[in-house]
Design a protein that fits this description.
Layout (H helix, E strand, L loop, with lengths): L1 E6 L6 H14 L3 E6 L12 H5 L7 E5 L12 E5 L11 E4 L2 H7 L5 E3 L21 E8 L3 H15 L5 E8 L8 H18 L9 E6 L3 H10 L2 E3 L4 H9 L3 E3 L13 H9 L9 H18 L2 H16 L13 E2 L7 H8 L8 E5 L5 H9 L4 E5 L2 H9 L4 E3 L13 E7 L7 H14 E11 L1 E2 L2 H5 L14 H11 L2 E7 L7 E6 L7
Parallel strand pairs: 1-2, 1-3, 3-4, 4-5, 5-6, 7-8, 7-10, 8-9, 10-11, 13-14, 13-16, 14-15, 16-17
Antiparallel strand pairs: 12-18, 17-20, 19-20
């Protein structure tokens, strides 16, 4: 069973803090391919490099665990949303929640599953950025633009504890990283709201115990507040509530609608503080068994072949009537065998730094390019090579490499790779295979992904006289004008091209899949 697990890389989010242990647990039960939902480095995920770099040719399921703005449904895979904060506008097949409350709040129209609650096992060690003033702290984190929710929180807290200065309200008002200039304005609005509500309740404004922290979301700050508090008021999401319960904190929800002001007043808050917190357990085994059982059921019930056939038919209809016209072009380029020096590859590896998704190295050889991806760029990557001895060399270096050539692109799924590097490959195939390689590359790349092709330069005199033909496996040279037309006719935008300044002046060309390309 093959599962593609898409994760928001922001470890400040409670959902993402759950992802590392979930990767470890799920990879023991299914063939798991981990991917980020947007550009990120693997510096914080070193133990999961193998999970991120694992090639996956025929995943049946896409398990999406990120922000709805980053969600893109896969046309063949069964699209599952895991614990979403909001439902995306794009289509999906079903939703998995860790709380019945979230299902009721979001009311999805597709099938849903309620999983046993989990909390991340990360130790909560940081200190709160605002010190406790008094005997106990009530903590609430909100986006700074949630003014209605903020007034609800202030109304309920001041109704319950406005005359008890030993109880402190710690507010973490989260702003966008670009909104630092608005901190003073937000603080002014907060003081005005607290003053207005306090006066309406006939409170002594000098004794109000409210501390605020206005900043971008920082994991250490959030966890520090959680550690110092006794109660989490109006949690950001269910996972945040589970995290608090796991630390033996009380949790109280407030309804978001302004008309519900006062629904949790003095009695509810006081009881929440005084009541014993129910014992919280991470139900890992039960949750994993339920996930695996559901995936097994779906693998038997869903007609994945029909989904793939429909996508293939739509692609064929889109290609109908298209004509190729490359036979009029002639070659006048140079050749260069793979030199195997790290600095030669490094300048081209830079094109893929921080790309979203795996990088495929076609003709990976002894793995030098893959080593740069892993060791220098921390970028998930795997290779293809027709020589089993070279595949074995990569395996000994703990690099992912598979037996095969560029034709294996036809087996890979749409929108599954972040980049493709093909150094001195295209001159080893005829025109039909070269065209198929470029067209399949466009199909399997994610929008914004790059295809980089390097090939001998026939304009170099040494190569043209005999160098190209010293490799008995060379089929034909590919001049840059021909490569440009193949790339453009296939749908790529050419973002760079030229010739090396040293050696035999090899040709290179870089094409990018358009951002809006759904293919």
């Amino acid at each position: 069973m093959q599962v593609r697990y898409l994760i928001d890389p922001d470890l400040a989010r409670p959902q993402t803090r759950l992802a590392p242990p979930l990767i470890s647990a799920l990879s023991e039960r299914v063939t798991l391919k981990a991917e980020f939902t947007r550009k990120a480095e693997l510096a914080d995920w070193p133990e999961h490099y193998a999970d991120f770099s694992r090639p996956l040719f025929s995943a049946q399921f896409q398990l999406f665990h990120g922000q709805s703005k980053d969600y893109q449904p896969h046309p063949i895979q069964w699209n599952i949303l895991l614990d979403p904060e909001v439902l995306p506008a794009s289509s999906y097949d079903e939703v998995w929640f860790f709380s019945e409350r979230d299902r009721e709040r979001l009311s999805p129209t597709t099938p849903t599953q309620i999983l046993p609650p989990l909390a991340s096992p990360w130790p909560i060690t940081p200190q709160a950025p605002v010190p406790l003033e008094g005997e106990l702290m009530v903590f609430c984190a909100l986006a700074a633009n949630q003014s209605a929710e903020l007034r609800i929180v202030l109304k309920n807290f001041l109704s319950a504890f406005g005359q008890r200065p030993e109880v402190m309200l710690a507010l973490y008002l989260i702003i966008d990283e670009q909104a630092q200039t608005k901190v003073d304005m937000i603080e002014t609005e907060l003081i005005a709201a607290a003053t207005e509500i306090g006066e309406a309740l006939n409170l002594d404004l000098e004794t109000l115990n409210i501390g605020s922290w206005i900043a971008a979301f920082e994991k250490e700050a959030y966890l520090g507040f959680l550690k110092a508090s006794q109660l989490l008021l109006h949690p950001l999401n269910t996972q945040a509530a589970h995290e608090a319960l796991a630390e033996a904190k009380s949790v109280v929800y407030l309804e978001n609608a302004p008309q519900q002001v006062g629904i949790y007043a003095l009695d509810a808050l006081t009881q929440a503080l005084e009541a014993a917190v129910p014992e919280f357990e991470n139900h890992w085994d039960a949750a994993l068994e339920q996930m695996q059982a559901r995936l097994t059921t779906l693998s038997l019930e869903v007609d994945f072949e029909a989904r793939a056939a429909a996508v293939k038919q739509a692609a064929a209809e889109g290609q109908a009537g298209r004509k190729q016209k490359y036979s009029l072009f002639h070659s006048d380029y140079d050749a260069n065998e793979l030199q195997g020096r790290r600095n030669w590859h490094a300048r081209y590896a830079a094109y893929f730094k921080g790309c979203l998704g795996d990088v495929l190295d076609i003709g990976s050889g002894s793995g030098i390019f893959l080593e740069i991806m892993r060791d220098d760029l921390k970028q998930p990557a795997f290779g293809l090579d027709p020589d089993p001895d070279m595949v074995a060399v990569c395996d000994n270096l703990k690099l992912q490499s598979l037996l095969g050539d560029e034709r294996r692109l036809s087996e890979m799924q749409d929108n599954s790779l972040g980049g493709i590097h093909a150094s001195h490959v295209i001159e080893h195939v005829d025109g039909d295979r070269a065209i198929a390689m470029v067209e399949n590359a466009l199909r399997v790349l994610r929008p914004g992904g790059k295809l980089l092709v390097r090939t001998p330069n026939w304009r170099n005199q040494t190569v043209r006289h005999e160098g190209f033909w010293l490799d008995i496996t060379h089929i034909r040279p590919y001049p840059l004008p021909l490569l440009e037309q193949v790339f453009q006719d296939s749908g790529f935008e050419i973002v760079d091209k030229g010739f090396e300044e040293f050696g035999w002046n090899d040709t290179y060309i870089v094409g990018q899949k358009p951002e809006g390309d759904p293919s």
